[in-house]
Structures are given as C-alpha cells and as structure tokens.
Design goal:
single chain, 8-stranded antiparallel sheet, elongated
Length: about 190
Amino acid sequence: MKTTIFIALLSLAAFSATAQTAEQRAISSRTPVNMQCVRAASGGSNRVTWRTSYGSSAREISRTATYTCRVRWSGRAATNAVLDVWFVGVPGEGGGKEIILDNKTVPIDLMPSSNVVVNVTSDEVGNDKATYVALNQKDVSGAQLRGCVVQLIMGDSVVRTYSSQSHLAAAAWKYPFGSVSGGTIGTDN
C-alpha cells in the first residue's frame, strides 16, 4: 500500500515538473520552429565609493546580461512571433526567492527555412553594499541579476522556452511568465 502511494506521488511530481499542459504540448509539437538561446555577454561595474582604514567600505555594483536567441522557422509561409525575455535575479542580500527584474518583448518576422538572430540586453541592475565594521553591520539594497527565461510566443501560445536556470524551466511555460511590477514569477494573471 505504501509503495503504491509513493509511486502515485512520484508520478504526480514528474507530471507537474513539466508544467506544460496537454494543449501546450500539442501546439508545441506541431509548430515547426526551433529556438536556441545562449548568454552572449555580461557587463557592469563594481566600484568602491568609500573606504576607511579600519575596514568599513561601500560598493556600487551594477550588472547587465545579453542573451542571443536564434529562431529557425521551418514552416511553408512567413509568420510572426514574439520573444518575451524575462530577466530574473534575487534580492540584493542574496538567497531568497527569484524575482523578475526586467522584461523585454521583441516582435520577430519568421521567413520559411531561415534564421532570425536577436540579441536582448537587460537594463542595468544595481546592488549597493556597505559594511560597517565597528557596528558589525551590512546594508544591502537592490538586486542581483542571475539569468533569464525566454518564451517564444506564436498567437496566444508559448511554443518554445529557454531558461538559464533549470529550476525555472517548468514556470517558463506559464503565460504570462509573471509580473514585472510585482516581481513575481509564475503567477496566474
């Protein structure tokens, strides 16, 4: 009896890990498109704004990330699609639950048997840190940029996804992926 319950729970967990509905699987499987994304560049700065002789200091840190997405359309007629790119990170102090930091929407025109290459760069994300040695305190503000989720949307359906972080792969099939204003991921708006 315990084995049967355990197997049922494992089956349910495996099914929910995909987070792709049966309708999404059907649409995705019959859509002749491929998508590849890769982190192409990262930038930003890390500068000390002040420092004392006894070890206290403050830093202004900013980061950007650029991802290159290549979409190949194998359909017979030209069509339109949208790349919805969600940049994610964590609150400045680190750890915690991922939040949405930025969202870029890029309309693309797909021609038969051809590639479309799109570079998408996040807004600059700031993370300021101050350490006060005498008080044994740290002040942190802003957020840390960690990666992105890309959704290829055709019509009103997500047909392909990419996630730079494996634990967000299931949530990448949610449409919309989340809310920029609230920073929440995987909400059912």
